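Consider this today:
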Amino acid sequence: MLKLCDVNDSGQSVWLVAPGVTVGRDQGCDLCIPDDSIAKLHLKIAIKGGQLTLGNVSGDSHVLVNGKPMASACRIKLNDQITIGTRTLQIIDPKVAKLNSSKSKNTAWALRANHKAIAGKVFPVKGGAVVGRSEECDITFSLSHLSRRHARLEVREGLLFAIDLGSANGTFVNGRRITESRVRRGDELRFDSLSFSVVGPADDLDRTAVRPAISSHLMKSPKIGSGEVTAEDVTQRSFSASIAGLREESPSMAEPQEEKLQPRIPIKALGLTLLLVSGAAGYFWVNNLGVFS
């Protein structure tokens, strides 16, 4: 399966699956790129039978395919590069190609305004940014309820953190007032009443899931000794099978030994009885002969 990735940040990527994907800065796009040079809905890629068809739906915005302007819908393929705004995307096969890590310093984070006066406006957060009403801040809003230096945003190893700078009216993540907190894609970040949606790479979903350890009660179940093993209880089944194998291979184990010892007890008793009877018979026989007279 192919993937469309930002050549400078593989964290900005989307799998190319039917019926198609959309690319733009709007958070509703399959590939959301927080960049003002990109239209809200910039590209559509139709996918049918392994064929990819690229369409420019941005209106006047230019699209380059392998450095050449795209006049109308066109076919694209593996390794093609698509340039929109200041970004270059490439079609890759993840099995054979690796782009820069999504945890690089260039990981794209941004704030998308929710306030009606600036709704939809995107504010990129590069290595970090200070938010407040002072002109010295990286992201400035001339609002009296914001502190001069209200909060700081930091990107650490690709993750975004918000730190309140002792503001009077507080910094909030999903409605909870914070001093410092990690924020994720889709979270609401609010400086007093000024609300933003966080735009950025999703958490990594390609990691192999770790299966939970088998519950200890399975190991201790009394069913092992009785041979009652359920289909799901792999540990008990293996344990019982190994015991059965040992019994077949070792005929001298406890149970066979007991069977051999049991008949020895009557044999000894019978021998002692015969010895006593023989001794008594011999005594009477000798006595009858008058040996002891």
